[in-house]
């Protein structure tokens, strides 16, 4: 058991109450500045995507290909990390703008938004790093905790968990969100699975057609370099998303838990578990934006529905509270967190 989970119930409740106060302050302060932030990001994203598409349409002319690919890559990262992920968390629902609402947003990703919100918002954020409850703890295929049983296939996880998974991360997540193992275990009906599969197939077909058929055809003589530019942008986005997500959940210091340890968990104890099970990445403003502010993974797991631009603002308060109650606050530069994550992947691959 993590030492911080041994906090007396009264201490955990006090920790939770102080976090609730931080949350209430942010909710009371939300307003024009936050709305301007998200709308500015949407405008930047659209400009980068339009510029990238236009440049790739004439990518036979140098330096259109590298410029177009760079713009499209950045646009896809912004849309996936800072826009799609956070909008689908309901962080901007308070604006009552149907164009920026969790119930209407459909992102540039093969997974339908409704499927992702179930596996991510409902399951992962509720059961963060609880073995047997949080499917994101190793994404079913990987062993990332000593409390997970070891199987011979885990010897290969340094291969399939990184070099094979990262470039196609969006498609792997689409398959993962279908919850095929739940059908085998009898927790999900075949009918429900087939319905989800049809939804994923429709969305995936649209995504594939858009990037690898429609826009290359519109590029005419530049069709092949345009297709390669789209493929490069998607691959780079996938590798970046894989890196950020793994560094936020699996480096040294990010704890996992058993179901027995969280039995009868109070709201304060839930807060403690979120802090213990997450890890931050240190860096400048650009890094934070390109990670969707998931570089503040601890703050995100404590307050998944607060506007992402507020995480950096409240991070010093959260860190001070963790120190006050003796709760480890795991943070470090990207390269260190990435190396630590891979050390864990290799360690957990062994019996």
From TrEMBL:
Coiled coil: none annotated. Transmembrane segments: none annotated. One of its GO terms (biological process) is lipid biosynthetic process. Pfam families: FA_desaturase. InterPro entries: FA_desaturase_dom (IPR005804), Fatty_acid_desaturase (IPR012171). GO terms for cellular component: membrane. Residues 64-331 form the Fatty acid desaturase domain. One of its GO terms (molecular function) is oxidoreductase activity, acting on paired donors, with oxidation of a pair of donors resulting in the reduction of molecular oxygen to two molecules of water. This is Fatty acid desaturase.
